[in-house]
Fold these 2 entries.
Entry 1:
Amino acid sequence: MSPAAQGRWLPDRATGLAILAALVCAAPVFAVAWIAVTGETGDYLVHLARTRLPVYLLNSLFVGLIAAGGAGLIGTVLGWLVARTEFPGRTLLSWVLILPLAVPAYVAAYAWLDLSQAGGPLHNATGGLFPTVRGAWGSGLMFALVLYPYVYLLARDTFTGQSADAYHAARTLGAGPFSAFLRTSLPMARPALAAGLALVVMESLADYGTVSYLGAPTLSIGLVRAWSGAGSLVDAARLSLILVAVALLVFGLERAQRSRARSHTASGRHRPAPRFHLPRLQGLAALLACLAPLMLGLVIPLARLGWLALNEQPAPDLLAASWHSLNLATISAVLAAGLGLSTAYALRGRTFIATASARAAGLGYAVPGAVAAVGVIAILSGTQALIDPAWERLTGHVFPILLTGGAAALIFAYLSRFAAAAIGPSEAALARVTPALDGAARTLGATRGETVRRVHWPLIAAGITSAGLLVFVEVLKELPATMILRPFNYDTLAIIAHNYASDERLGEAALPSLLIPLVALLPMIFVARYLSRTRSSSGTA
Amino acid sequence: MKYAKLLAAGALSVFAVACSQPETGGTDTAAAQTDESRVVNVYSARHYRSDAAIFAAFTEQTGIEVNLIEASGDQLIERVRADGPRSPADVIITVDAARLHRAEEAGLFAQTDFSEFTPDIAGNLVDPQGYWIALAKRARVIAYSNQRVEPGEIETYEDLADPRWDDRICVRESGNAYNQSLLASMVARLGEEEAEAWAAGIVENMARPPQGGDITQIIGVAAGDCDVAITNHYYYALMRNSGEAANRAAAEAVTLFFPNQETSGAHINISGAGIAANAPHPEEARELIAFFLTPEAQRMFAEMTNEIPVVEGVEWENPTLDAMLPFVADDRNVSELGDHNATAQRIFDRVGWQ
């Protein structure tokens, strides 16, 4: 039996779910595109193109580049250090390094601007020498510091899972350890790194809270201003099409280089590379390299907010808000992981429909939360208009209002935004399940179900869980869509934090801002450690 | 693919549950409405502790439960618009007159005879067409350094565009509604051309690119980044009473100055409310707005958020606020801020005010 025919069974069954994922993710984007195309044309966009648009585009470019460069560097170096070398504190750091992901970039920005602005402690202590964290570079830096775990996580897993064969071959041929890394390990890790970087760039471009707080007007600011100001929903929808185009470009590049890099291990035996022990001084340097981003992205911002929170009475309803945040994040994470995994399986069939579904799902990630929310509103109110008369004729009752009725609209928007974030990691995880493995399992008499359960699952569980984790944290941090779509009396931590911070009551914003990372930390620590456990057991097998 | 099926079933059931959930709280349909469970659904752009206290007092006195959604004015407007005739919104509250105007333009408000609620409110704080009414006032004024600016050096907003202030002004970004309304008031007073020249002068005189909110600007003055800042008055009050020593020290290093006292009066903006056009509970909505205008609620604005009550003759205890009063306020109808909002935003774009 050819591997291709052997591989048909699962993908065929997953394709239905992949299509569902694509519909959920892309529908709001298409709704927005529809608004953009059919809306009335005013002169606002012409005005914008003549005045602010170049600034928005330049800022987006800078912010994206600085975020990607910073996160790529930090994530790759740390991922490699942890996966390939042995130094003091490595085991602990291997999961602690993921934790800055729990900090929303806007929360880091609150703390860093407060510390470094004129009159802040850092500014005073250094006599004004410490630069104020602001503008495009400041925003890019914030994104790099809190988003590098996307790259780190995928880099670490890939470097750990990589077979040592190529590396050893390079070493045998006379390459030093670093040269061997650059010429074998790094190119082999490229798909994972690219997936991580794509996430970082899209997150940065879709952000609103950070860039508005630090004064780096990117396209997403222009979009919100077009919507809320002199322009209209139509103008905003048209601007958001630019963001969608950029996203298509970023993900297109990622895909293109991933398909180039597709490779399967030549030998059936999976032999992870052994870690080499760093000498004392280098080990210390590695430890410091790991601690630096941790301090800058996690410890210092949270310590500052903690200090501010101590001087302020806690706002009411924090417990309820935490509970709401946790609920929304959990439900979305589980659903997104399911959709991501299904899409990844469907993609193994390499059918047109699967590829198209995955691409369409990626669209959702491209639009800022506010736009996704507008899309969801358009879809739900459209659906409502269709259902209402028919339902009333059938049952004599009014159909419950879709939009304001519950958390469904919100979860719809979350999935639309973030399910794509689960596809990349799922695919990366599934890449470890080679067609050869399927063949071997079937030859040894395993049924298809057994193959999935006993061969696939152990190999992909870590990846899928981390995919769910990414979505969980994203939802916890998400702000604009939550503001627009949440039900009555249903504040989340992000909303309380933003409300106070945008009113510059940083003292009152401090505690909810602090609680977001704290709520995220527990599940994250659990998952991070679980990931490390799965790693070592599969490593020694 | 058992897992996929399982997940699919899970996903569907969650959606089904979420969709079929009876609406939480007060979004009941009229049929289910009974006297025992009176509610009012409030969409508010305010997010101050005073409001929680006011709502609590309102519920206690009337038995009417308050359901609340807080978001920015624009987001609230978009949501009410999307929900259309089925929108559960009863009362819409914003913190900027231009946003009230937007909601009015979108047809979201019902015309109301607000004169029944209170006779003691200045005419320029009520929409001429009766779509909304002010609940509290805020002034957008100037803070200057005690060390580097002499009293009397500035008298008007117009002064700030003078080259004398080159590299000496801190002000926040133009996306901010308060800046938009300030410029809108300049457009109303001086016309578009002069207002644009003024905005261009301010951009020329900025000490740094706009960043942070009003408190950040005041801190900038105190720390020597700039010599004057444009700010809403209550931020200064907030800093004076702050739990943080650094904020109190910064407030003490600057003087809050109400400009244009000899001419047009200081620019004021409002928190205001209107009753939704499709309000399912219009009677409760009226009761809530009437309550906002009682001396009891007005007093809470003055004491808890340092906002200026709109109802004449209300008493309160707040020495920080009293120290700022009285002042001459621009007596133009605040609805003009909405009329000129779009113009103001385009001026900001043209002069490159970030």
Note: The radius of gyration of chain B is 23 Å.
Entry 2:
Amino acid sequence: MTTVERPMGGRLIDQFEYGLDAPICLTWELTYACNLACVHCLSSSGRRDPRELSTAEAERVIDELQRMQVFYVNVGGGEPTVRPDFWHLLDYAVCHDVGVKFSTNGVKLDKARAARLAATDYVDVQISLDGATAEVNDAVRGAGSFATATRALENLAEAGMKDFKVSVVVTRENAGQLDQFKALTDSYGAQLRITRLRPSGRGADVWDQLHPTQAQQRDLYQWLLANGDNVLTGDSFFHLSAFGEALPGLNLCGAGRVVCLIDPVGDVYACPFAIHENFLAGNVRDEGGFQRVWQASELFADLRSPQTGGACTKCAHFDACRGGCMAAKFFTGLPLDGPDPECVQGYGEMALAARDASTLMPKSHIDHSHTGPVRGQPTLLGLPAMPPAAAAPAPPTRICDESPLVGLDLG
Amino acid sequence: MSAVVEFDADLPWQRARSVSLRPEPFGALVYSFSTRKLSFLKSKTLVTVVESLAEHPTAAATLTACGVTDAQRPAYVKALADLARSSMIERREAP
Amino acid sequence: MPETPADVETVDVPAPTAEDSLVEESLVEEVSIDGMCGVY
């Protein structure tokens, strides 16, 4: 813990370089298992990792988060609800003063679950959706995923759930559907949340094809200025602030400063978009647990010290965008002290074009993607979807099956 | 839209029950579990004021007890009004 | 800085601190819990 003289007053963000005693909120991926195989998955999820934290270990993490007074945890994955102990851990967190939002594709949110959630305070639900129509959504998330998500939305609305969210990753394919997304969420009484596509996880493989164009970014920025009052963004578009008026939010990278990621095997990364050994700060199973990692890891101390903006500091817009997203730069092979690949002034495009055959494109070794086709395969990359009714009977489940989804009836 | 709570410093107040206050070296972070709002308190004295509101008959008395000077008072009253408006502090049943 | 009368129970009058300069700016900053980048 730092004892450096820190200034009083000023803005909250001025305090970050001196460190916070605890994150304000963090993302906790409970499992790498997932029933889907979205093309852009930031955590390359699909198959469960056998080294996942046990129920008891997860409870100890929650105890720590309570002690540290972490206000809010975004529980995700993979698909967190496929863990059999998910509902227990949800209750445990709520009982231990840790507010939870969980991100889900909706697969388990039947009417009974929805009713239970509606009766539970301190729990927020966020349904992932990447198209306002099944056609656009399912190309990226898989056949049937739009139906699964909207069924969950219906159930939540019917149960009287308040303030549930629909979270959208903005892509080239859905950037023109913002008004439709708003209409969709309004129709369910849900809150719209739009977020930025990062070249992280499997996202690296489709980023060139899927990331919004410069023109779409400009339209998105204008749309947020006009409609942003009721729309959440997780501050993920702070790089667009270089267009002019700043968007709401802290407008800077929170990785290792106010947020971080705890992954399913207890590894602590600077943020969920940076699941790579370069951004690994420690493990909750280490001596001192999560608190020691947050307060004393070298990586986080580095991130909390003033960052060199490099060439970007000469740009008139640097104060607004702060050089953009660290993960976006890293995974497109750009230097961290240079422009964001989607720099609205165009410097990122120039930097991308300047990459040559020798430019190192970092690839994370953390990959839990399904190795074979799944029911409801995304079609974006031209792979055929499996037929909805199985042509051959499914093989019998075996004790040694790694996937927790074997035998799961998604109907 | 929630009702606007007028701030009257001559009434008893307290930190709202659904609020978590986390001291930090620079002051504190305050989070309301019911409204999902988050506030950053920029002075240690203000933190002490918020935490001891319940022990004093009025907010005004709390400011005095915490050593807030005359020059500082308007800023502190405004801060408490901001916190009342965002439901971080609430009226306490007298006394 | 007013003098402290000797016959009055004294409260230590602090020297001018950084806090005095905060009179000009707000002591409370509201932040959105969803306003921090790095949470999906």
Note: Chain A has 13 helices and nine strands.
